[in-house]
């Protein structure tokens, strides 16, 4: 039994989008839809600009609205807490897309299947590899691992840093957390 968690350290992120490109390549995500984007927000006035980088993808809610509303069981949780979709059971009602408070799901324009981040479960995790986005990040802004293993990098990070969770007030208990940018941006 594992509890997979991902942390995005916004202090280390440089907004390069290597993660989203790697995700697209690894998971054959078509143009016009995405499993992952890093949103870039600029503020301030030149030359005192501030840049914030936030990750937008499925947050792997422990209490997933997408799973609760699915009428066929196509949206389900693995024992490791990863929310997945069984295409064979999906009837394309799109309830899950409407129910997701993180706008993380989409209809694949080619296959018409429902898509979202899977933490690269079938294609990488089951082979003992870390998710594609994590593996390419040049600044180690993404940390992934088993939060039940006290010696894992992700456990040590959680113990050391203040981790925040997107829309925590919804109580969906995300397993994608972030370390808020406190450095004032790279260009300030
Ligand atoms: S690859 Fe790393 S540094 Fe680049 S945008 Fe993604 S998380 Fe940020
Ligand atoms: S972020 Fe959306 S798609 Fe992901 S588990 Fe939560 S409700 Fe489901
Ligand atoms: S974990 Fe995999 S599917 Fe999810 S954003 Fe990263 S590369 Fe894409």
TrEMBL record:
One of its GO terms (molecular function) is 4 iron, 4 sulfur cluster binding. Pfam families: Fer4_11. The keyword Iron applies. It comes from the Bacteria. The keyword NADP does not apply. InterPro entries: 4Fe4S_Fe-S-bd, 4Fe4S_Fe_S_CS, ET_IronSulfur_Cluster-Binding. Keywords: 4Fe-4S, Iron, Iron-sulfur, Metal-binding. This is Putative thiosulfate/polysulfide reductase, 4Fe-4S iron-sulfur binding domain-containing subunit. It comes from Campylobacter iguaniorum.
